[in-house]
Amino acid sequence: MIATIERPLTPRSKPAAKPDRAAELRTTISASRLSVWLQCRLKFYFRYVAQIQRLPTANMHAGSTVHSVLQNWNIGRWRREPFAIERFKTLFVSQWTRLQEGTRINWRKEEASERSSSWRALENYFNQTPIGANEKPQAVEVSVEADLSRHGLPTLVGIIDLVRAGARIVDFKLSGKSPSPGHVIHMHELQLTAYGILYRDATGKKESALELHHLVRTKEPKLIVSSMPPSTENQKIRLFRQIESYQVGLARRDFVPSPGFHCAGCEYFTTCRLWCGKGTHA
Ligand code: SF4
Q: 52 in a domain, yes or no?
């Protein structure tokens, strides 16, 4: 016998209201979300408001794989495990396969060379890294948040790749070309300043430096380490003004395209070409 449960009929009840995604997005902010907003508001709309899923690109896949190996390397030092390059090579190969399960990447017949250049950049990093084999991290892949409501701003959230001994905050980047020495800090200041704020809020202490470790996948792989001193009051104010602009723009649903060189790597290029203002505005 099948038991049935009597439920009141609710033909007149209203369907559940769709949550206002733009309003949700105003409650928190991360450095990566803010960067997309500042780069192109229409791209922001496609990715975070409409949540249009796109298959990962070859670059995204390579970045995720390298990131996961570096995370394991950092955790290994935390546990005081001896370093063995073969172990990380095996991990790299297995993660390369595992992270593309259930998805489809358009390799354009370049998967072998993408994999090889990614591994060579990683191998070069292990040979050249300024992080000593015995240097125990303070934190690895730590998820942090800071309540900025006293500044009239949303909660700042983020995941910090690594906090080295001596409170040096590190972010790893896999890149196809060397960062420009004159512009690298300017390009990443927003993210580094956000990490400084998150670190201070979580620990009550000031970071000693903010570092970018670029693993460059050129024919001859390179490691470029760029360092910024602890973020200043001016940099903090600059970030806060950018977050304010995000808040105001989101409330106005100010989703317009910003064409530029960055469009070459935009996963929404085709959708963008069809856009004529419909759907994005309330
Ligand atoms: S193609 Fe360019 S303008 Fe269009 S959404 Fe992407 S980044 Fe914005």
A: yes
- Secondary structure of residue 160 in the 3-state scheme: strand
Any idea what the CATH number is for the domain that residue 216 is in?
Answer: 3.90.320.10
Specify the residue with its C-alpha closest to ligand 1, atom 5: 43
96 lines ligand 1 (CB under 6 A): no
Round to whole Å and give the CA distance between 128 and 14.
62
The predicted-structure confidence for 182-212, as pLDDT tens digits, reads as follows 899 999 999 999 999 999 999 999 999 999 9
Mutate to test the pocket of ligand 1, among 35, 36, 40, 274 (most ligand atoms within 8 A of CB): 40
Mean pLDDT of the chain: 92
8 A C-beta contact, residue 160 and residue 193: no
Q: Is residue 13 part of a domain?
A: no
Q: Which atom of ligand 1 is found nearest the CA of 275? A: 4
259 Cα: distance to centroid of ligand 1 (angstroms): 6
HEC readout, 247-268: HHHHHCCCCCCCCCHHHHHCCC
Within a domain: residue 36?
yes
Terminal-to-terminal C-alpha distance of the chain = 51
Q: How many domains does the chain have?
A: 1
| Domain limits for position 60 | 27-251
Question: What would the mean pLDDT of 229-243 be, rounded to a whole number?
Answer: 97
User: Which mutation among 38, 254, 262 tests ligand 1's pocket best, with the greatest number of atoms within 8 A of CB?
Assistant: 262
Q: How does pLDDT run across 258-282, given as a tens digit for each residue?
A: 999 999 989 999 999 999 987 776 5
- For residue 15, the 8-state DSSP code is P
State mean pLDDT over 19-37: 95
Residue 60, domain member (yes or no): yes
Q: Which atom of ligand 1 is nearest to the CA of 262?
A: 7
pTM of the model: 0.90
